[in-house]
Amino acid sequence: MLTYLILTTRALMMATIVLGTIIGYTELEEEGYRRNTVYAGIVIGFIASFVIAYLRNATSLIDSAILNGWIYAIHLISFVLFLITSIRPLREKNKVTGILEWVFLGMISITVIAYAAPEVWGYPYHVLLNEKTVISTDFLLSMIGMLLGLTLMIVGFMATQKILISGDKKMCSTVIKAELLTSAFVRLAGFFSVLFQKKIIKSNHTMFTYTVYVKNHGDLFIYISLAIIVIVACIMWGKSFTQREPYKNSAEHRKILAKWRNIRRWSATSVIVSLLVLCNMTVLEKMNETDVTLSPIEDATDIDNENVYVSFDLVSDGHLHRFAYESENGVPIRFIIIKKPNSSSYGIGLDACDVCGETGYYEKDGQVVCNLCDVVMNISTIGFKGGCNPIVIPYEIENGQIIVPISGLLEYESEFK
Questions:
Q1: Measuring CA to CA, which residue among 156, 137, 129 is closest to residue 355?
Q2: What is the pTM for the complete model shown?
């Protein structure tokens, strides 16, 4: 249960804050048709997220890296264009520019949901790979954890939205730009990672260092997003005690007092949610650690300038074997090999996946298990895209050896620390 509570929180927290900020900013807009543009983007984003989750987990029709690359690119372009079109003098002088501001905000909403939500929608599928049925204690506990995480995110979304609506446009504009900038730092690192993997650009030290830093410190950016909202919540809490709005009669006075009491409650809720998220990602995660030690990296049969060679003799026992190639940057790029049961074929893939990153896999009771989310792999599907399966890498089989091109491994250098 704790595993899926933590995973859901980590997957959705930044998206929740960004969406709450966007809705708060949108609600302050007086023109209804502009608000509808953003709401339409949110609806499209959720529809897209369900489609992506299905295609990613139940089929091999999409390349997750390429899809994420497009999402990153659209998000970053929309963010830059939003910043330009939201400049007040430009927006007020040009009606088209004023409309485009909301179109780009709608595009950002689509990308935020389409990137974050499919991972969570895929959790029931991941659990069922192990349990095979929804009528099991482990499945029910896992789904309870996921639902608790979703509930926490919904409350956080509502609190973010409410405290921003209670402020003024200037404050809201500052907050949304700060939150989107924080998100853009993460998306840019993801975009660089895809470009490196697919050899669209050559890696250089600066871009590689930036990408690895952001990927290895993903929680830091979540904490920054939370800190921004907590600061706003504290500001609104303080204002609620010092605000002196004029009123004509006692009924108006009671209405004003009720409004500021409501603001205090949502401000407190925002702080409480932030503390719970912080607790989830630190204390509860520490409690949930399984202390699994990955098996050591084995020596390959041979390595030359182009390929890593692994003899069948090393991997024909039906157990999980881990190998690695060390790049020029000193990064060990790990991959796993296991002979499939009742078959002469092998499951071969990176010791990392698109969902959980480079945490790796371990063998338990003849099964291959993800070290982060405890999902059990179907060994027969290792080597195919989708779900929590290892990232697919190119290889050839020749003369009793598995031949893995070094160029294919270097595409994923940024996946590893």
A1: 129
A2: 0.78
* Cα 382 from Cα 54, distance rounded (Å): 18
Dihedral (CA of 210, 114, 62, 373) sign: positive
What is the distance between the alpha carbons of residues 18 and 161, in angstroms, rounded to a whole number? 10
Furthest-apart CA pair in the chain: how many Å? 92
Sheet containing strand 376-377, strands side by side:
361-364, 367-370, 376-377
CA distance 214 to 95: 38
pLDDT score recorded for residue 132: 61
Residue with tokens 């009771």: 365
Structural contact between residues 402 and 315, judged by C-beta atoms closer than 8 angstroms? yes
Hey, what's the torsion of the CAs at 170, 114, 416, 183, to 10 degrees? 0
Cα angle 342, 348, 351 (rounded to 5 degrees) comes to: 130
Alpha-carbon distance of 279 to 277, in angstroms, equals 5
User: Which token pair is 191?
Assistant: 């975009």
Strand ranges (E), 166-311: 302-303, 307-311
Strand partners, 332: 326
Alpha carbon 156 to its chain's center: 17
Pair type for strands 396-398 and 321-326: unpaired
Query: What pLDDT, in 10s, does the model give residues 372-405?
Result: 777 777 787 787 776 677 888 888 998 889 999 9
Q: For residue range 209-236, what is the model confidence (pLDDT) as tens digits?
A: 888 888 878 889 999 999 999 999 999 9
State the Cα–Cα distance between residues 79 and 110, nearest whole angstrom: 12
Distance CA 68, CA 77 (A): 14
**Is the CB of residue 391 less than 8 Å from the CB of residue 380?**
no
CA nearest 26: which of 11, 41, 46, 12? Answer: 41
